[in-house]
Amino acid sequence: MRRILLTATALVVMTVAANASIIGAYECGAPKSSPPDKDRDPIYKTKLETIGMGNNPLVGFSIEHHSVSGKVYSRDDQYRDRRYWSTSISDNWSGISIKNPSLTMVGSLVEDKRNRLARLTYVEKIFRSGRLETTIVSVCHPVENEG
Question: What would the DSSP string read from start to end of the chain?
């Protein structure tokens, strides 16, 4: 019985993965943190992918931060219980830190259309026990999908 359940679960996961597609790929420049941090290995770029499936415009969000030393930090590895949603001007995700459950992060890829030139920014807000602790902002641009 367990073997049948595992097989059925694997088939569902493979079907979902096969139907998912990257709907946006972006690269963002060096982030600005408020309050400023004193990181000895600062992030110099961030790669984002928004993932959709069928009629659902946002079912996933992949975020990788690349540091000067070459380390890559994936939000998928750092946050659990992730949720995804879209508004008229942003794609968003939130999650709870795996290492410190009192930390919650909300990330938003925001399109600012107030000027003639639309500007994309990626904003991460870190909350400790529900109180805003840090805001990190990067300016982004679309890139070709690597897949």
Answer: -HHHHHHHHHHHHHHHHHHEEEEEEEEE---EEESPP--SS-EEEEEEEEEEETTEEEEEEEEEEEETTS-EEEHHHHEEEEEEEE-SSEEEEEEEESS-TTEEEEEEEEEE-SSSS-EEEEEEEEEETTEEEEEEEEEEEE-----
The pLDDT assigned to 118 comes to 67
Domains and CATH numbers, the chain: 22-142 (2.40.128)
Question: Which token pair is 132?
Answer: 């805003």
pLDDT at 8: 36
pTM of the model: 0.80
Could you tell me the mean pLDDT of each successive run of 10 residues in the chain, 147 residues long?
38 43 88 91 94 82 95 97 92 97 96 75 97 96 78
Q: For residues 47 and 66, give the distance between their C-alpha atoms in angstroms, rounded to a whole number.
A: 8
Closest CA to 117 of 137, 141, 136: 141
The Cα 95–Cα 75 span in angstroms is 9
